[in-house]
């Protein structure tokens, strides 16, 4: 299907053509028509399937810009996913004038959010805990919301947001459209849909991957003590530029990351106990190629915007076979090839049988491969932090200009730039980072000096 075949507003169709969206993905083709009709929809689809545009276009088509009040509420499990959703909505809404989309997430200062809310918004995107706080304090009024979106609903329940979701939904009018998106459908999701939805339509896109794009390996480990060494051995065998190791517990993420660092690898851990600034730094360094390995729990990794991932390692097989498919789907995206490795002991064979039920065949179990290299090369980039951000009116262009002034750095030596409220990060080529640090320290940004430091991985 093409987007032109849908009864969307002309401004939306024109913008979709401008940004290169022509054909609908599978989940968009299945979910968008009933969403446009105003039906409640339950959609099951993996990350990267185009689900944000599926509900985003429905929301924007329905929105009445002239009515300046909160009409749509989108809830996500993490700030990273909320930011990603808000960016996509703004991109889809570029041809709609005067639309305001506001993010409300925990881990960010409360005061600036109050100021933004006082100026009003059409769409709120945020995390349940912070949204509930604003609702409880009366700073966010939901009486005019006609569309409620629960994105990655399974992870919101996993993270303990059940009570917050219930409290928020009580404040939203019953006469509304509710859209629920989830990668998996445990019993708790069925109970939630029964409480918050009216005669919903279930749309399910099978979580599958092209055999040619993802090569799976299942390696037997004799006992748990062998797993740590096995992770390093697998990484040194495949030699990825970027790899993610999935764990079932927070404690494992720290243990594995520390072990890999002791083996000379630039590895970082991410889990729910990290403060927001720590999470930001970890994700920045991994996404901009300053770190080679990210060790993560499923909840922490949900919604991460990671491109060109070469290798996924399952430290333990997931207890849920659909989560397994979601994990390995992090690699082999957009036509690229990837490798997914799972480590398992004899006691985990029952999990393998569950995966076989989902994919249709029992995977072969191999012996651990030999390491092909003695060490993993250092990442191509180094991250510099600038103690100034959006509040100081810094933009990516200012940072590029400062680095390339007097031809000190070539444009090709500058990587990803991410600007937050109070600080900014820029990736620079590893062999140029000292020159870049001096250039930023001794130069000016927006006519003033800022403290700059290297983020050590």
Architecture blueprint of SSEs:
Blueprint (H helix, E strand, L loop, with lengths): L9 H9 L7 H12 L3 E4 L6 H12 L9 E4 L3 H14 L8 E4 L5 H9 L4 E4 L1 H10 L9 E4 L2 H6 L3 H9 L6 E6 L4 H10 L4 E4 L9 E7 L4 H14 L4 E5 L2 H13 L4 E4 L5 H12 L5 E5 H4 L9 E4 L6 H8 L9 E7 L4 H11 L5 E2 L14 E6 L9 H9 L9 E6 L4 E6 L3 H10 L9 E4 L2
Parallel strand pairs: 1-6, 1-7, 2-4, 2-5, 3-4, 5-6, 8-13, 8-14, 9-11, 9-12, 10-11, 12-13
Antiparallel strand pairs: 15-17, 15-18, 16-17
**Most strands sheet:** 7 strands, parallel
CATH class of the largest domain: Alpha Beta
Distance between the termini: 45 Å
Class by alpha and beta content: alpha/beta
Task: Please list the strands of the largest sheet in the order they lie side by side.
Answer: 3-4-2-5-6-1-7
**Which bin fits the share of residues in helices?**
25-40%
CA radius of gyration is 23 Å
State the low-pLDDT regions, or none: none
DSSP helix count? Answer: 17
- Total of domains: 3
CATH fold-level assignment of the largest domain: Rossmann fold
**Average pLDDT score:** 88
CATH architecture of the largest domain: 3-Layer(aba) Sandwich
Q: What's the CATH H-level superfamily name of the largest domain?
A: P-loop containing nucleotide triphosphate hydrolases
- Give the number of DSSP strands: 18
Content of β-strand: 15-25%
Overall geometric form: globular
Keywords: ATP-binding, Helicase, Hydrolase, Nucleotide-binding
Pfam families: DbpA, DEAD, Helicase_C
Family: Belongs to the DEAD box helicase family.
Protein name: ATP-dependent RNA helicase DbpA
């Amino acid at each position: 299907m093409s987007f032109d075949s849908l009864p969307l507003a002309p401004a939306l169709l024109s913008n979709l053509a401008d940004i290169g969206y022509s054909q609908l993905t599978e989940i968009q083709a299945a979910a968008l028509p009933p969403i446009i009709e105003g039906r409640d929809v339950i959609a099951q689809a993996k990350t990267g399937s185009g689900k944000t545009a599926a509900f985003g276009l429905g929301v924007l088509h329905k929105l009445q810009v002239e009515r300046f009040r909160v009409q749509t509420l989108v809830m996500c499990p993490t700030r990273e996913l909320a930011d990603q959703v808000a960016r996509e909505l703004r991109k889809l809404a570029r041809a709609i004038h005067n639309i305001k989309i506001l993010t409300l997430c925990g881990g960010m200062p409360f005061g600036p959010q109050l100021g933004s809310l006082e100026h009003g918004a059409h769409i709120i995107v945020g995390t349940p805990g912070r949204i509930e706080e604003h609702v409880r304090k009366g700073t966010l009024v939901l009486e005019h919301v006609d569309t409620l979106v629960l994105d990655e609903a399974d992870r919101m329940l996993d993270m303990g947001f059940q009570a917050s979701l219930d409290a928020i939904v009580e404040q939203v009018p019953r006469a509304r459209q509710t859209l629920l998106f989830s990668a998996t459908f445990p019993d708790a999701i069925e109970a939630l849909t029964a409480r918050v939805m009216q005669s919903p339509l279930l749309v399910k896109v099978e979580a599958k991957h092209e055999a040619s794009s993802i090569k799976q390996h299942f390696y037997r480990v004799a006992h748990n003590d062998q797993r740590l060494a096995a992770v390093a051995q697998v990484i040194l065998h495949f030699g990825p530029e970027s790899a993610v190791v999935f764990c079932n517990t927070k404690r494992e993420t720290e243990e594995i990351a520390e072990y890999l660092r002791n083996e000379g690898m630039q590895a970082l851990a991410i889990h729910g106990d990290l403060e927001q600034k720590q999470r930001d730094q970890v994700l920045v360094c991994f996404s901009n190629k300053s770190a080679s390995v990210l060790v993560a729990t499923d909840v922490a990794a949900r919604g991460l915007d990671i491109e060109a991932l070469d290798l996924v390692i399952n430290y333990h097989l997931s207890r849920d076979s659909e989560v397994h498919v979601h994990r390995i789907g992090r690699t082999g995206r957009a036509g690229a090839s990837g490798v997914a490795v799972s480590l398992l002991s004899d006691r985990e064979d029952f999990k393998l049988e569950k995966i076989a039920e989902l994919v249709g065949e029992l995977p072969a179990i191999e012996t651990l491969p030999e390491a092909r290299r003695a060490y993993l090369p250092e990442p191509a980039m180094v991250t510099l932090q600038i103690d100034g951000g959006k509040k100081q009116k810094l933009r990516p262009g200012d940072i590029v200009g400062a680095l390339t002034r007097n031809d000190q750095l070539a444009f090709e030596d500058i990587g990803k730039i991410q600007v937050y409220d109070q600080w900014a990060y820029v990736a620079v080529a590893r062999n140029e980072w000292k020159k870049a640090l001096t250039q930023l320290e001794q130069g000016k940004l927006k006519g003033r000096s800022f403290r700059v430091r290297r983020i050590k991985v």
